[in-house]
Amino acid sequence: MVSDTFIYSGKNVFELNGIPDFTLPAVKSKVKIPEPSRTTDPKIILSIFSQLDIAPWGDDNLSPTQARAKLLKVALAARAMKLRIRTHFGKGLLLYKEVLTTSEKIQKVPVLAHAEFEEFAKRSNLSITQARFCSDWEWYSNIFCEIILSEDAKKITRINRLPAEFCRWQKLNPINLKSEFVYFTADWTRINTPDDVQKIRALDWDNPIEDLRNYIKRGGKLRKFILPIKMEEMDAIYYDTPYWTSILDTYVPIALTIPKVKQALLKNQMVLKFHIKIPFNYWLTKYPNWNNPTDFPDEKKSKIINDTLDEMSKFLSDVENTGKSFISHYGTDPLTGKISDEWKIEPIDNNRMIKDGSYVVDAKAAKEEIISAIGVDNTLLGGLGGSETGSGSNKREAFNILQAELSMDRMITTKWFDYVKDYNNWDADLKIGYRNIDTSETLNENPTGSKETL
Asked: CA geometry: angle at 68 spanning 55 and 390, to 5°?
């Protein structure tokens, strides 16, 4: 028996003797990350670098910008970075002193009144400046802290943060093996002369305050300097490398490819509701001259078929038709007694390629590697699912662990305070720290759910 096959998918689709073959086009697995546009001839930039002896950050001097652009394309990675920055900053800075209790334990006592520091903090817009230091450290593992001296050079009156992405070190002086200047510009692709780059005197990497005092003793007139805050891990001479950069050319492209594949599936795979099978004999029974091209030319047949499809689509899809019965006539084969020439309406399992979890495992694995490299437990993000994702105790412990792991990073991002305290002759036992959120107590012990700690 020959059957005509009709497929309803929101539009009328007619195919004789079978279902059309819809083939998914090939999807490229390599995601191209656009590089920052360049407006200056690279030869001019190289010439300026040579004149100023600038140490480029990466082969093309755009490594931090490119790394940030790549990572921000992964939504969960961006969220993880934001979480690290917020946890690093906590509830902000607080002055304190350490005292020894009668039980010989060290207790941190907040210093709530310090007029000189408060004036310094006000001039420096310290809360925002410190949050920016945290951001630069988490993103780039480099901080460029600018200090401003009073006219008489007796005090450091304020600090500024120069965005790490826009700063470059001068190459090492071959005599003392020190970088003596930092160069700053908001766009390293738009420099045409050395004057487009700001040049700022840098203090000694290891002994900045001694270097500053010696400079003032020699009658130096500058009052603005870069206070180096860096680790110089492993072979990093100029710029430390964040550990998360290891995923930029591995798991980030995978995480970016999966959504593109899904989009291609959604775009190119038809969404079908029902497969309607109408016996060919139906038309002959209803229209005896169906095969007569004079009475029923192809255009007329198509219109009749499409009108029938429209009626069926309304019957099957309208809310008012829910629960209705469909009645059709059928015939039996006189030889076998089996049913023949019957209508069939078969529901179609839509989007099997989308619903069966294809690529989900790959996407999840890539995201887990990414946030692991950033250093955030996935229970704090809730983006990967799993039976333990929503557990409050898991989240609390993961947050406490993250806070504890930040101790060395926090020491680095507040190192400027030790230098300023030394130069300004503040109390030697004065310290600064971040205020934490203590989530270790239960709600009946701590009704607000939080307690400040240092």
From this structure: 145
Q: In angstroms, rounded to a whole number, what is the distance separating the alpha carbons of residues 77 and 373?
A: 10
- Rounded to whole angstroms, the Cα distance separating 127 from 133 reads 10
Do the beta carbons of residue 397 and residue 380 sit within 8 Å? Answer: no
Scanning the structure block, which residue is given the tokens 């038809």?
270
Q: What is the pLDDT of residues 352-406, one digit of tens each?
A: 555 555 556 667 788 888 888 898 988 888 756 555 555 678 888 889 999 999 9
Structure tokens that stand for 314 in this block = 């309304």
Nearest of 38, 44, 36, 41 to residue 193 by alpha carbon: 44
Measured CA to CA, the distance from residue 203 to residue 156 in angstroms comes to 14
Q: What size, in residues, is the chain? A: 454
Give the containing element (helix H, strand E) for 420.
Answer: helix 415-424
Give, in degrees to the nearest 5, the angle at Cα 320 between 315 and 326: 35
Q: What is the pTM of this model?
A: 0.71
First-residue to last-residue Cα distance in the chain? 83
**For the residues of 311-366, what is the DSSP string, one character each?**
HHHHHHH-GGGTT-------EE-TTT--EES--EEEE--TTHHHHT-TTHHHHHHH
Q: Helix, strand, or coil here: 79? A: helix
